[in-house]
Amino acid sequence: MPVLEETGQIQIHTENIFPIIKKAVYSGHEVFLRELVSNGVDAISKRRMAAMGGDCSEGQEGEIQIRIDRDAKTLTISDNGIGMTADEVKRYINQVAFSSAEDFLEKYKQEDDAIIGHFGLGFYSSFMVARQVELVSLSARDGSEAVRWSCDGSPNFSLESAERSEPGTDVILHLMEEELEYIEPSRIRTLITTYCDFLPVAVQLEGETVNKREAPWRRSPRELKDDDYIELYRYLYPFQGDPLLWVHLNTDYPYNLQGILYFPRSSGRADWEKGEIRLYCNQVFVSDSIKEVVPRYLLPLRGVIDSPDIPLNVSRSALQTDRRVRSIGGFVAKKVGDRLKQLHRDEPKRYAEIWESLAPFIKIGAMEDEKFADQVADLVLFGTTAPAAESPSSDTDDNAAAEATALDPIPTDGKTYTTLSGYRSRLTAGNDKRILYCTDEAGQAGALALWRSQGAEVLLADTFIDTQFIPWLEHRHEELKFQRVDAELDDSLKEQESELADADGKDASEKLRDLFRSALNDDRVTIQVQALKGDSAPAALILLPEQMRRINDMGALMEQRLPGLPDHHVLVINRRHRLVEGLLKLSAGAVLTSPAAAASSPSQQLSSDLSRHIYELARLAVGGLEPNQLAGFQQRSGDLMGRLMERGL
C-alpha cells in the first residue's frame, strides 16, 4: 500500500469568499472553541445522516472530547463524526472557497438544522490562538485511511498518512505563548458553558460532560410544563427571581425560528439599548446583543432566540440587517402581543397584578410600532378611582371565564385598574369625550378630591412615561379630550351663588382678587375666585392649563430634568373656605379703620402676608416650592402664626 505524502499551497478563492486573514475575521479570539466544537457536532450529524443513507457505519453515540496537554502546550478537540478522506481534506480544508456542509446537503437533498458548518470558515479561527494546527482524520466510509494535515498559518501545508483507530477528527492546536490561557481547564469550561451549553452532543473536558445538551426552546410547548420554563430562566438569569410570564416562539415558515422570551420582574435597571436576549444559531450561542432582530421596546425582555435564518457575518459575530431580520422582528412582536392578549383575556386579575412591570414594554411599543399599537389597544391599563367590579363566582355557570374577560374595573391588592374603553363606558352623556387623569395623587390631591367628591372617575397616569403616552393617546383618539384634574374646573365643582356688592360696588370675589393680586404682585399668576363644592375643598389650589403644562413638561423632558411649576399658572381661591372667609374679614377690618392708612396698617400687612401664605400652601401642595425656598416659607409661617396668636385670631 503506497504511503501518502504531499505538500502544496492552500487555495483561497477570493472571488467566492472573503480572504482568510489570520486574526482579522473574528472580533474575539475565544470563539475559536465555539467554531471547532460546532464543526465536530456538524461532523457527528453528517455521520448519522450518511449512516441512514447506507454510506457508512453509524458508530457510537456522538461526543466531543477536549484534551489539554500542559507540557506540549496543546489543546485537542476530537469528535467521532464522519471524518474526512485525503481528497476531502484537500477540498474542505485547502480549498476554503467550498463549504463542506453545503455540498453535503446538496448531495443528500435535505435541510437539517443540525448542520452547523455551512458558515465555512470556522476551522480557520483556530489560527487566532495557534502557531500550528494539526488535523488527524479518519473517514467513516469503508476502506478509508487516516490522514494528517498540518499548517503553521502560512499558505504552506503538509498532508500525509496517519494512524487513527476510530472514525472522526482530531484538531490539535499548538498554542501561541500569548494564548496559553486556553490550556487552563477553568477557562475552557467557561467557554463551553457560554457557547456550547445547549448543543445536542455531549462536550467532555477531561472525561466530564460539561454542557447541558438539552435546549428546551427546541421542544414543542405541549411537552413543557411551567417548571421547565422557570428552570431555564433561573439557569440563564440566576438570582433574578422568577419571570412574570413567557412567550414560546416556534415557526418554520417563512423562516426557521424557535425561542422562549420572558417578561422579567421590574428591577428598575432594564437595558433598552443592548438588551438581555441571547441569540443562538442551531443551539450555538452567537451574541447577547440582538438589537437588530427585536424591536427596541422588547430589548429588556430576557430569554433565547434560536434561528439559522438570521443572517450573520462570516464569523457569526455580528448580524447583517436586511428585510428578513425586520420580518423576524415583526413576528416576535406579534407573538408577544398575542401572549399578552391571551393573559388579559383568560386571567384579567393576574394581568392587572403584573401590569406595572408590563407597562413600559406595552406603552413604548405602542408609541413606536403602529402594528403593535393595534394589537395592544385594549390591553393598556390605568389605575382608577372607580370602585372595583365584582368578580364572577367561579361556580355560577360555564360562562364564568367569559364573564371574567369583561371584568372592569379590575381589583388588585394595592390598586384598581381599568382600560380606556372600560372608563369610557362609564362616562355620562355630555362628558363622554373628556378623559380625566391624575399624574400625582399627592401633588394634585386638592383637585383630585374635588372631582371625586362629585362622583367623577379619574384615571391614574402616574409613571414618567405617561407624560409622553397621554399626548400619544390623544393624538390616536382625536375625538377625545384628555384633561388633567388640575387643568381646569367645570361648573359641576362650583356653587352657583349670587354675591352682593358693598358700598364700593365690589363683591367678596372682587375684593379677594384685589387682595391676592396686591399681595403677590405677579402678573404671571392668574387669580380666580370660586365657591367650590365639598367640605374637603382646599382654601386655594393651583391649576395648570393643559396646553401650557404640556409645553412645560416637554421642555423639561428635552432638558432632562423634572418638570416644575410653570411661571404662568392659575390660582383658584375658594371663597367658601373658613381660612379665606377669615382673611376677608381681617382685610375688611383694616379698611374700616382708615382708608388712607389701610395700606400701612398692621391688619392690612397681616392680610397681605396671609394671602401670600395661602398661595405658598397651594404651591407646596403641587411641589412648586424649590428646596431653597422651603426655609423661607417655614420662617414666614412661624412668624405669621405668632402674629395671629397675638391678635387672638
Q: In short, what is this structure?
A:
With 649 residues, this protein is α+β, with helices and mostly antiparallel strands.
Description:
The structure is a single chain. The chain has 649 residues and is α+β, with helices and mostly antiparallel strands. Helix content is 35%, strand content 18%. α17 runs antiparallel to α18 (627-646). The chain has four domains: 5-209, Heat Shock Protein 90, CATH 3.30.565.10; 216-337, 2-Layer Sandwich (Ribosomal Protein S5, domain 2), CATH 3.30.230; 380-481, Rossmann fold, CATH 3.40.50; 494-646, Heat shock protein 90, C-terminal domain (Four Helix Bundle (Hemerythrin (Met), subunit A)). The chain starts with a strand and ends with a helix. The radius of gyration is 37 Å and the shape is elongated. It has 18 helices and 23 strands.
Topology:
Layout lengths: L4 E5 L21 H22 L10 E7 L4 E6 L6 H9 L5 H9 L21 E9 L8 E5 L4 E6 L6 E8 L9 H11 L6 E4 L2 E2 L16 H11 L8 E7 L5 E7 L12 E6 L2 E4 L14 E5 L16 H24 L1 H6 L1 H14 L1 H6 L5 E4 L15 H6 L4 E2 L4 E4 H6 L8 E5 L6 H9 L5 E2 L5 H11 L4 E4 L23 H13 L4 E6 L9 E4 L2 H13 L10 E6 L3 H16 L8 H20 L5 H20 L3
Parallel strand pairs: 2-8, 12-14, 18-19, 18-20, 21-23
Antiparallel strand pairs: 1-6, 2-3, 3-7, 4-5, 4-7, 5-6, 8-9, 10-11, 11-14, 12-13, 15-17, 15-19, 16-17, 22-23
Helix pairs in contact: 14-17, 16-17, 17-18
At the fourth CATH level, what is the homologous superfamily of the largest domain?
Histidine kinase-like ATPase, C-terminal domain
Name the average pLDDT: 83
Largest sheet: 9 strands, mixed
Strand arrangement, major sheet: 1-6-5-4-7-3-2-8-9
Proper CATH architecture of the largest domain: 2-Layer Sandwich
Q: Which range best describes the helical content: under 10%, 10-25%, 25-40%, 40-55%, 55-70% or over 70%?
A: 25-40%
- CATH domain class of the largest domain: Alpha Beta
DSSP strand content: 15-25%
Can you count the beta strands?
23
Shape descriptor reads elongated
- Would you give the CATH topology of the largest domain? Heat Shock Protein 90
**How many separate helices?**
18
> Terminal Cα separation, in Å?
122 Å
Structural class: alpha+beta
Low-confidence stretches: 13-25, 97-101, 108-120, 396-405, 592-598
Cα-atom radius of gyration: 37 Å
